[in-house]
Amino acid sequence: MKPRLAVLKFASCDGCQLSLLDAEDELLAIAGAVDIAYFPEASREYLDGPYDVTLIEGSVTTEHDRNRLRQIRQDTAMLVSIGACATAGGVQALKNFGNVDDFVSLVYATPDYISTLSTSTPISDHVRVDFELRGCPINKHQLVELIAALLVGRKPNIPTYSVCVECKARGNPCVMVAHGTPCLGPITQAGCGAICPAYNRGCYGCFGPSESPNTDSLESWWQSLGVGDDEWIRTLRTFNAGAPPFVEAGAKTEARR
Amino acid sequence: MAHIIDIDGLDGLIASLKAEFDVIGPIVRDGLIRYGPIGSVADLPRGWTDVQEGGSYRLEPGNTEALFGFVLGPDSGKTNLFPPRAPMWTYREGSFSATPDSTRPMAIIGLRACDLAAIAIQDEVLLNGPYVDSHYAARRSQLFIVAVNCTTFATNCFCTSMNTGPRLESGFDLGLTEVLDDHHFVVHVGSEAGASFLAGLDQRQATSDELAEADQLIDITANSITKRLDTTDIAQFLADNLESPRWSAIAERCLACTNCTAACPTCFCTSPVDTTDFDGSAARERVWDSCFSLDYSYMGGDPVRSSGSSRYRQWMTHKLGTWIEQFGTSGCVGCGRCITWCPVGIDITEEMAAMRAEVLAKEAR
Ligand code: SF4
Ligand code: SF4
Ligand code: SF4
Predict the structure, then answer these.
(1) What domains does chain A contain, in order, with CATH numbers?
(2) Residues of A with CB below 8 A from B277's CB?
(3) Exposure string over A218-247, b if 16+ CB within 10 A, otherwise e
(4) Is residue A19 exposed (0-12), middle (13-18) or buried (19+ Cβ within 10 Å)?
(5) CA-wise closest residue to B55 among A164, A175, A193, A194
(6) Which of residues 231-290 of B touch A (CB under 8 A)?
(7) Could you give the 3-state DSSP secondary structure of residue A92?
(8) How confident is the prediction along chain A (257 residues), in pLDDT tens digits per residue?
């Protein structure tokens, strides 16, 4: 029997799930190798669990989602969280830095209708996660690699080193050294293929912190390039605002100001 | 004995090399000098120069018409001889087949003395040991080198400390010295292949005055280089200082980003990366790795070198110390690339000097 796959979402934009549909060259092969049992984004056929592998996109922002997640964990053998929302809380984790009631009263006409947690948190804060795929959005080649690896039971080739490694393998010049452009590559996990430096832009940190991010050192180098505290903090607080090394680095700078 | 060619002669050389080789040379791309395919002298970075500091590289218009008036970009011989990824083998339906290197013979124009020293070091590692890297061997055996004597230098150059430059000694097919007065090149022949290509060009014998003039330009370069690395008993010194507090001080700045190992023309560490496909086939690639990546020292459930200090220490002690025991030469040719291309400007010569100074200060106490 083919392994049963489920793909579902929490608080997120759907972009990461779409990466699976976007893997046009491999999609037929994947569909042939697994039984896509539950994937509302792609099919109206909803088959009940248990599943062998569940890919989860999105972060946990409501009590209802928190409970739903516990049920999903029970229904699946392997749980993989995909994307910056599921692995770090996503851009919506910006609410962790403010007061959620203030936001709600500003945004919604009838705040009473809104029932939300005060934080946006990654899947791994709530249940055991077997593997995480980073990125906003995830890289479809990494997703295909992950599925191919799971099918034969080998370790997926998903490196945790910095974007700089991919940047050099791609043959990019270093934009920080050659042009003085601030780049988050040295503290960001590889996975995107160093797209931004390939177009002469600094890395935005879409794949979250690398395996051993030296945020202090990069911060002082950015200062020498003319980047102020506000801009540094803003740069850390985007898609992976909730990732602990970025949270800590931002808090350090804030405390110093 | 040396010869003289002018710019048209160099153009003729490129044209005749093109018949037999993919010709690669310095070009301006993305605001810096890279090695890429060239078709004629017009592709060379005429009039450009590079200004380098720790963590900074800027291409600027020079004040001459020199074709080789710059020093070094991030690329070296390694860029083309030992590229970041190479296919090793594939597996399909029960059988493995090795993937041979498929590149055409290459001619590289513009390599410097330190680059040739680096190629000699990679030869020692990749060709002369018990395990020959067949891809490197294939590219290396068909390589034609037109090297260039350095008549200018960058702040991060310290080849004079490593005895690798700026003068070309060996390891080239043709060696050029660019002379701007009456713009011409003094050509030294380094191989039979070089001699036969030269014979087909419009050239003449160099006079002793012309030779002396070219030689003097290289001497001036050598004497102008001020960056130093003290190599006295360096392997022993590093072995004696594995617990130096300096390693942690460096680790406070080091990003473990691997830019130094990527830019270094002698660094050769790779990892095999195996993939499987949905149709049951599999493949292995040889991919650059680095002593700065955690996974590279992953053994028995944990990385052996988890701290930043242990990773930088591994790099520097190998490069400058244990390499000598292992391969008979230093692993450093003094090109300064790791200093320029370190995004936070960590300088291997400064770190070495600081460590020596700390030891001297301790002894004086
Ligand atoms: S451009 Fe950015 S990612 Fe690339 S090497 Fe430089 S710092 Fe690293
Ligand atoms: S260690 Fe640095 S200076 Fe020495 S050869 Fe490597 S890149 Fe060049
Ligand atoms: S020494 Fe510089 S280039 Fe090398 S890993 Fe550290 S920060 Fe990166």
Answers:
(1) 4-152 (3.40.50.700), 163-256 (no CATH)
(2) 29, 148
(3) bbebbeeeeeeeeebbebbbbbbbbbebbb
(4) buried
(5) A175
(6) 252-259, 262-263, 273-279, 287-288, 290
(7) helix
(8) 899 999 999 999 999 999 999 988 899 999 999 999 999 988 888 989 899 999 999 999 999 999 999 999 999 999 999 999 999 999 999 999 999 999 999 999 999 999 999 999 999 999 999 999 999 999 999 999 999 999 999 999 999 999 999 999 999 999 999 999 999 999 999 999 999 999 999 999 999 999 999 999 999 999 999 999 999 999 999 999 999 999 999 999 999 88
User: Residue A196: exposed, middle, or buried by beta-carbon count in 10 A (0-12, 13-18, 19+)?
Assistant: buried
Residue A178, token pair as written in the block: 């050659």
For residue A233, the surrounding DSSP H or E stretch is: helix A229-236
Relative to the CA of B260, which ligand 2 atom is closest? 7
Structure ipTM: 0.95
Locate B6 and state its tokens.
Answer: 């002018």
Inter-chain contact B278–A165, Cβ cutoff 8 Å?
Answer: no
Copy the structure tokens of residue A205: 């940190």
Instruction: For a ligand 2 pocket test, name from B264, B267, B318, B342 the mutation site with the most ligand atoms within 8 angstroms of its C-beta.
Output: B264
Counting beta carbons within 10 angstroms of the beta carbon of residue A138, is it exposed (0 to 12), middle (13 to 18) or buried (19 or more)? buried
Distance CA(B58)–CA(B48), nearest Å, equals 10
